[in-house]
Specification:
Length: 166
């Protein structure tokens, strides 16, 4: 006679493993856009290169990419010269103020980062999230030294497949 009260867990585990295999999505590595300017204040370069990366071919129009980088560069062009002037003044007065004269530069640098993050949020919601991309400002270690720099990361948003049982 068959054992009707027996519970077989092995079959359930195999089915769950098969379901998980169907949901694995391969996401490419993020594209890194490094600063290309001649001046850096607290790791933030005064401009980013607008050359179209190969990893974005057939994902976004080169014109859209260039327009985004130009908007980022215009924010940097407005804010970083002021930061440099305050940095120079802060360094001159550093001994007299015991380092407190550098606080305005730190605050202005944070404000610049905040402005860039707001711009990137707007760009993402306007265009890039619809294309499966996400731009963000991130800190990374420089290749040549142990110093940190800010880079633009373009991450790929994984598409969630809809599971249809056979």
């Amino acid at each position: 006679m068959a054992d009707f009260d027996a519970i077989y867990e092995e079959e359930e585990e195999e089915n769950e493993q098969n379901l998980e295999e169907h949901y694995v999505a391969m996401v490419p590595e993020p594209i890194v856009i490094r600063g290309a300017g001649n001046m850096t204040v607290f790791g933030l370069s005064n401009r980013f290169e607008s050359e179209f990366p190969n990893g974005l071919i057939s994902r976004v129009a080169p014109e859209e990419f260039k327009a985004t980088v130009m908007r980022i560069n215009s924010v940097l062009k407005k804010t970083l010269p002021v930061n440099v002037k305050w940095l120079f003044c802060g360094c001159v007065c550093c001994c007299c103020t015991l380092g407190c004269s550098l606080w305005p530069v730190i605050c202005l640098s944070k404000r610049t980062q905040h402005s860039l993050n707001k711009l990137l949020e707007w760009e993402n919601s306007r265009l890039y999230h619809k294309l499966g991309l996400h731009w963000r400002l991130a800190k990374q270690r420089c290749d040549s030294s142990s110093m940190m720099e800010y880079v633009l990361l373009i991450e790929f948003i994984p598409k969630i497949p809809i599971y249809k049982p056979d």
